[in-house]
Amino acid sequence: MAAAVRIHLLVRAEADLTVWRHEAVARPYWRFYHNAVPGWAVSWRGGIHDLGPDRIIVVAPETVFHGRWTGPARHAYLHLTCEGAEVVARPGIWTLPLDPALDALRQAWTTGAHRDLAAQAFALASLARLPAEALGRPGHGPAVARALELLAEADTAVAIADLAAEAGMHPTAFIRRFRQETGTTPHRWHLARRIAAACLDLEDPALDVETIAQRRGFCDRHHFSRVFRQLRGVGPATYRREGRHPS
User: Fold this and answer.
1) How many CB atoms lie within 10 A of CB 114?
2) Which residues fall within 8 angstroms of residue 234, CB to CB, at 6 or more apart?
3) What is the pLDDT along the chain (247 residues), one digit of tens a residue?
4) CA dihedral 84, 90, 91, 92 (to 10 degrees)
């Protein structure tokens, strides 16, 4: 049975903007951009992707990029997470032509009666148009796949002994296999997952840092901030401030 694809829509918006800044702060979600006029662009690894009325810019999660702009623009954008598919996103930026089918969905999520539904359909249609190198298959064995499920569901630390027992393996052998298949340890993988979830929490201005730290299983704000800075390069307050859209 194919895995269900789950779209979690974070932001669906369209606004007339004169200021738009992205200064190399990665985010754990997909971004989709469309501009009604040319003049803005995003740069990544030396490449330039121009925004304009005839194209869509797709930014994968954890992609560190820079924004450039010239003059005001009608800027439409989606932020969302996509989970459950049998693929994993690789950092990158892609330009897709705005063909009639995509354009119809774009207009529906900005002016239609069912905007959230149209936005999700637009995102799935765009992802399906990405080149093969944009997405990579995880290829995990059953022991590691099950461990990843358990870790993804937990907001606090999970004992290695429990993960190994679930896999029917000795803890040492389990850690070795986990590292072979994921490139990291269960602890580091889970820590990165919790911080990524905290990044999404920081998008909500109603949640303070103390609440987020508690929600994601950290003993206090200071511990949370220290780990956050180690993994994201900036503290949670700076991350929240730099991530706020001018609109």
Assistant:
1) 11
2) 25, 242
3) 455 678 888 889 888 988 777 777 778 899 999 999 998 999 998 899 999 999 999 999 989 888 888 888 899 999 999 876 555 678 899 999 999 999 999 999 888 788 999 999 999 999 989 988 787 666 678 888 888 888 888 888 889 999 988 888 888 989 998 998 888 999 999 999 899 999 999 988 899 999 999 999 998 899 999 999 999 888 999 888 876 544 3
4) -110
End-to-end CA distance of the chain: 42
3-state secondary structure of 197: helix
Report the run of H or E that residue 120 belongs to, with start and end: helix 115-128
Contact between 56 and 101 (Cβ < 8 Å): no
| 231 token code pair | 């993994």
Task: Specify the pTM.
Answer: 0.80
* Residue 213 to residue 210: CA distance in whole angstroms: 5
